[in-house]
Write a structure and sequence with these properties.
- The protein is an alpha/beta fold.
- The protein has 13 helices and 36 strands.
- The strands form 18 sheets. Strands 1-3 form a two-stranded antiparallel sheet.
- A hairpin with a 4-residue loop joins β32 and β33 (512-513).
- α5 packs antiparallel against α6.
- It is elongated, with a radius of gyration of 35 Å.
């Protein structure tokens, strides 16, 4: 052979023959790095020497290429081709390992690289590991995993591997690293600042959400900065700023919902079991602008199909009633765009069913008055809730007898689950306290049959943690007792069945803001307490004329 004859490989056409490879005595393959598949005591040599000794390419560390031929020159050529392909594959892998985002979301998925499957170059005596096998004139470098290089104390080369020092964020137990200390899509919080190399050495891969594209990374950074305040509104503004759009104008519908920065859904009740994270009370438009979806448990009606025309005033249940050119959408989007309910096909949709569905409740038992229309699905605390018009003020019992349900927007408290046993005069929040034989029902139904609140188990609202919110046992109440007309406006958090009512929409001492205006009579009917800080009226003077 040429080797035995003392010939050397041509530096122009047979340069790959001098590529350093590794093999063990008695082994079958030559390898690109000395520890492939747990190999130990490997000897270094050139590719030409390995081929001459009968070694074959390792299918693991070199990958699959075209079939070998039997001649040394053809094998050397194939090896040269394989070396180029391996280099190309390695270059792509290195790029994936050190590049945190791709140019577009559709172009490439986030990197799956870790310290175990990312390869670098280093020599035994070098200080650094490299992405370029000839960086700075380096020769005879071994191709090893990043994990092996780091274990040997090698640092990233500041010239060819500086990206390994790029800042990323992750938690010690997380599976992924992120572009910012908060990733609202995955719920990651308080991520630790570390280098990309450190994250890879923890076997963490790139987050598919915040590192899916440059746009996603920019959005994630902006949103993370805003999310530190815990405000969904600020997050929505930041997101809209990055995307250059804000579809809905906040406050258009007048509807407020609950959402958290990290949650998928918006909710009509702050106590909804599907609500995750710390809830914020925001406008429907803010929730939609941030991409929140209606909760399938408490906001399912928001997904109802409706129709509207551009420039029109109403949304419709009937496509034919909507007229030509009408577009299909959801009830939530129709409200967010400012459409009112059609007085014909929406408010009058059930006018042919204006008969009681039950007589189980005796009108006037609870003393509670609500608002409803003949064709409406819900009864309301507010006569103009969600654009409601032409509503009649009726007893709670009448509304229930006609099959009306509590409005999830303005009267969600009425749906709170309570318990009562046969013959009991009280309703209970605790099933255990209700006793044997107790059954569950809504707060509205309990009031409609004349039950009153248990003085023991209803003094602590579910989830109450503060003596300042009116929901805790022995919470202070107003000592400034005075009366006011029953229709006097006061403010409450409609998501709570047992909290304070206030003089205004904000009460700093009680940490209350964004309240809904209701009548004093409503607040008293539903067991709200007079705030001891802003001292609203504590009793109601009956309205002289009822409708």
């Amino acid at each position: 052979s040429m080797l035995l004859a003392g010939k050397k490989a041509c530096p122009t056409c047979a340069k790959s023959a001098t590529t350093q490879v590794y093999a063990t005595k008695g082994g079958k393959y030559y390898h690109s790095y000395a520890t492939c598949s747990g190999m130990t005591n490997a000897n270094a040599g050139t590719l030409a020497e390995a081929l001459a000794a009968g070694f074959k390419r390792c299918p693991k560390c070199w990958g699959n290429t075209a079939a070998n031929t039997k001649t040394d020159t053809t094998v050397a050529a194939a090896a040269n081709t394989q070396t180029a392909k391996a280099a190309a594959n390695q270059k792509a892998q290195q790029a994936a390992a050190v590049t945190t985002v791709s140019s577009t979301r559709a172009q490439a998925a986030p990197s799956k690289a870790t310290a175990s499957n990312t390869y670098v170059y280093a020599t035994r005596t070098s200080r650094y590991y490299h992405l370029n096998s000839t960086c700075g004139g380096m020769t005879n470098a071994s191709r090893v995993s990043l994990k092996t290089a780091a274990k040997a104390g090698k640092k990233a080369c500041p010239i060819c591997a500086s990206a390994a020092n790029k800042t990323v964020y992750s938690t010690s137990t997380g599976k992924h690293y992120h572009v910012a200390s908060i990733c609202v899509e995955t719920g990651m919080k308080n991520g630790t600042k570390r280098t990309l190399a450190e994250a890879l050495l923890m076997n963490q891969t790139a987050c598919q959400h915040c590192l899916g594209s440059r746009q996603a990374a920019a959005e994630a950074v902006a949103v993370a900065d805003a999310a530190k305040s815990g405000s969904v509104e600020k997050v929505a503004v930041a997101l809209a700023s990055q995307r250059g759009t804000s579809t809905y104008r906040s406050g258009t519908s007048g509807v407020r919902v609950y959402a958290s920065v990290s949650g998928t859904y918006y909710h009509t009740r702050s106590s909804c079991p599907n609500l995750s994270g710390t809830p914020n009370r925001v406008t429907l438009e803010t929730a939609l602008n941030y991409g929140k979806k209606p909760c399938p448990k408490c906001a399912e009606s928001a997904t109802r199909k409706v129709y509207a025309t551009k420039g029109g005033k109403y949304y419709h249940y009937s496509k034919s009633d909507a007229g030509s050119g009408a577009k299909e959408g959801t009830l939530a989007s129709a409200l967010a765009y400012g459409f009112d309910p059609c007085p014909n096909c929406v408010q009058g949709a059930s006018s042919d069913k204006a008969e009681p569905v039950t007589t189980a409740f005796k009108s006037g038992t609870s003393g509670i008055k609500v608002y409803a229309t003949t064709g409406s699905k819900y009864y309301h605390a507010n006569a103009t809730c969600s654009g409601l018009t032409g509503a009649s003020r009726v007893s709670l019992e009448t509304a229930l007898n006609y099959g009306k349900k509590a409005c999830p927007v303005c009267l969600s408290a009425a749906n709170q689950k309570v318990y009562a046993a046969p013959g009991d005069s009280h309703y209970h929040y605790s099933k255990a306290h209700a006793g044997s034989g107790a059954t569950a029902g809504s707060l509205a139904a309990a009031r409609a049959v004349g039950l009153t609140a248990c003085p023991v188990c209803t003094t602590l609202s579910e989830g109450a943690t503060s003596f300042d919110n009116g929901g805790a046992e022995n919470a202070p109440v107003s000592i400034e007792l005075y009366a006011a007309p029953a229709d006097t406006g006061v403010y409450v958090d409609l998501a709570s069945a047992n909290s304070y009512y206030h003089k205004s929409a904000k009460c700093g001492k009680a940490d209350f803001s964004g309240g809904e205006k209701v009548s004093l009579q409503y607040a008293l009917d539903w067991d709200y307490k007079a705030c001891p800080y802003c001292n609203p009226p504590t009793s109601a003077v009956p309205i002289s004329t009822e409708t």
